[in-house]
Amino acid sequence: MSDTTPAAYDDLLDRVGRITNVSNAAGLLSWDQQVMMPDEGTPARSRQLSALSAVEHDLLVDDELGHLLDELEAADLTADERAVVREVRREQERAVRVPTDLVERVSAASSEALTAWREATDADDFETFAPHLRELIDLKRRYAEHIAPDRDPYAVLFEEYEPCLSLEHAESVLTTLREAVVPLVDDIRGADANLATDTFDGTFPSDQQESLMRDVLDDLGYRWERGRLDVAPHPFSTGTTYDARITTRYDEADPVGALLSTVHEFGHATYTLGLPDEAYGTPLGEARDLSIHESQSRLWENHVGRSRAFWERFLPRVVEAFPGVGDPSVREAYEAVNAVDPTNLIRVEADELTYHLHIVLRFEIERDLIRGDLDVAEVPAVWNDKMDSYLGVRPETDAKGCLQDIHWSHGNFGYFPTYSLGSVIAAQLFDAADRDLDGLDDAIRAGEFTSLHDWLTDRIHRHGKRFETNELVARATGDDVSADAFVDYATEKYGTLYGL
Amino acid sequence: MSDTTPAAYDDLLDRVGRITNVSNAAGLLSWDQQVMMPDEGTPARSRQLSALSAVEHDLLVDDELGHLLDELEAADLTADERAVVREVRREQERAVRVPTDLVERVSAASSEALTAWREATDADDFETFAPHLRELIDLKRRYAEHIAPDRDPYAVLFEEYEPCLSLEHAESVLTTLREAVVPLVDDIRGADANLATDTFDGTFPSDQQESLMRDVLDDLGYRWERGRLDVAPHPFSTGTTYDARITTRYDEADPVGALLSTVHEFGHATYTLGLPDEAYGTPLGEARDLSIHESQSRLWENHVGRSRAFWERFLPRVVEAFPGVGDPSVREAYEAVNAVDPTNLIRVEADELTYHLHIVLRFEIERDLIRGDLDVAEVPAVWNDKMDSYLGVRPETDAKGCLQDIHWSHGNFGYFPTYSLGSVIAAQLFDAADRDLDGLDDAIRAGEFTSLHDWLTDRIHRHGKRFETNELVARATGDDVSADAFVDYATEKYGTLYGL
């Protein structure tokens, strides 16, 4: 703080600290619910989470907080202080503008939609879900209208997940991606390469997978004194710079799934752990939203965990843990973890490349739904047509088509693009790190990850929310957020793999 | 709710629900801290817990809550509604009367006192702890003065832990206990019985102890779908009626320690699980304070877990789990878990009988400290004199004397008596259950605990805070809270064991 920092700034930090701590408490409750809670604990846990969410909301809409922000926006502050005020104002403004009863209606509607979505998916019956989807779209449009009545409602909703990169910018990235990936996948489909996709066929007991995961996390430099590894049905990472936990799951038929998923969650956790201790409880101690978070997980998953150098180091460990895999070559392992499967229909099972087409499709559909350019009834047909057009396959059921993801039943419209944005930023960051650090590939091969950790901490983690997304990326890499690095990387990688 | 229930009552329930849920969230954070949290998580966790505690306090002192209570105290309510209002008022009044800065000073002082206490205990140096104890006594006296300036400050502090049984009543129970137990221990010291205290000598791996605990908890009827068993350095139980968790610890030299401690915590958890689901979030869904809670843990630990019938059932399991114990008789097992050791200096290691003298001693000292009748400097000498007078032993060090317990360094004065109150109420309840239920002893021997569960749920658990402590006990047993049942039970039990 500067000498001239007004007293109001301390008041602001007190209030923000409380809000953040209540929110972090909710994060822990949610972790516990997914990892530790006994089966019948839900009714109490739901009410505890609602209470914390209501408390957080009340603290955020408190008039006094608004007055402090008014005063501080007119004050002479340091750049860091201005960043704190900017970030708190953004949160506060949204909270103030959306009426509580609308928030509650969204919450109630998504709770019902979730049940309907589960039934619809089990029965492969889109009609069961359609009215709920329609209601959620209607509610979220009204939600967006409260925040900014004159703006594109989808752009407003997108900001829930990526508040400081414009939708125009994001859309141009996604368009570039689509235009590059569709023909690349087409070329791959036409190639006569025969990749070793059966390298890791077999049965892999969960206990041994877990011990391999712990070994890999040791090597990557996970700080166990500030973390844990547990099992959850849907892997995630959560926590604070003092305590950032990873979850994973084990499929006994697929050791690579758990490995890459664990490395992915490690990337999230290591970002959280790289946030500065001393800024805990303020925006400077918090992660810069979803696309940057996803850039960290995907950098570790794709640029480290799917690299040939990584497999040179880790293949012997996998073979040692699972002698049943025989004696595959590094090339065979590398092919198995990087093979492209354009016939796959499911986003969460997609390879690194086709993944983006699954995202672009969802983005285009949800954008048009929210803008009113597409009716809910048309979703299955449009979904299938786009699958055909982008990937050359048509789902035979809606369960394997437009019903496969949970996001819309949560009322989350605008979330999907952040996955692809994360990937393209990961490619930019890895490129830049590779330029800055001598022999990054050799370091990965040697299991020496300190220089990469340090680089990421210096360029990304330690800043928290100091910079907005594009500025953060530009300072780290020299370039604006763009798909170019990913396209170059993918063209080279898959060109080599498939002999294109 | 009756037809005439005023709208203010719904408002009250909303507010109380939020307060309870925030408090339960803090309970989960605290469980996690002791069971799951990585080593370096403390700084964030402390701030999260402070934030929740501040939120809870702010909700409790909100003027609007006071107005609702004023209105409802004058309204025509059902008995249950009146009970709810009474309980909320008690909490609210304390919160309103004690200034926030005093609460924060107690919290800061006890945080420092805790560190000093650890040093003092390690170095066996009471002087290191004395100034902190003095400060905490001073602060807690002021605390009591804010609540009720004209009353005995110790009586006021006692109400933090046992708010609805008068100190006079409690004191007469403790006096009866002392007057009965001192001569009984004296008789035991003089008896020439030679109990089989070495029945469970040996080494007992933690893994096998844990699997035995799970087996025992199954048999006792622990509802795993609403619970968990984990390890913690200091065993405890916590949670809600939907999710009541047990912790324990394993000493590889002592399988009986973990067994009785687990059964004790099971007793706490089963009380929590017996609270009515439909009253969750209101005082009618919450446990009636510490002495009733302790009565449940001690009923299961002492009247079930230390009974001969229990060992008739469980000894074969113990022998199966640990063949190294050989082939002891039920009598030998029963003697081993019930032997009295008047030479033991440590409360938490005390047998069921001498335990109460450890409590009476602490009660008398803390009462006199708070009343200003005893100076901190005199504590070691008074402690040792009382040990000599009640138990016939003198600690050679303060570490094994007046420094052994953590309670005072937390600023908890008035807590100790609830342990003995719990024991005497347990004896009363078990007596009453034994009268009401045919063949309770046979049921325990057969591992049939349903009738006891049902009786306890009907008489105690389902009422939550509906009745005040003495009324609850009187309705369940026909008698006011009293040491008589315990004294009869102990006289008979130890008379038989020691041939008195």
From TrEMBL, chains A, B:
Record-linked InterPro entries: Peptidase_M32_Taq
Cofactor note: Binds 1 zinc ion per subunit.
Active site: E265 (proton donor/acceptor)
EC number: 3.4.17.19
GO biological process: proteolysis
Needed cofactors: Zn(2+)
Keyword Protease among record annotations: yes
Catalytic activity entry: Release of a C-terminal amino acid with broad specificity, except for -Pro
Keywords noted in UniProt: Carboxypeptidase, Hydrolase, Metal-binding, Metalloprotease, Protease, Zinc
A GO molecular-function annotation: metallocarboxypeptidase activity
Residues holding Zn(2+): H264, H268, E294
Family of this protein: Belongs to the peptidase M32 family.
UniProt function note: Broad specificity carboxypetidase that releases amino acids sequentially from the C-terminus, including neutral, aromatic, polar and basic residues.
Protein name listed in UniProt: Metal-dependent carboxypeptidase
Organism: Haloplanus ruber
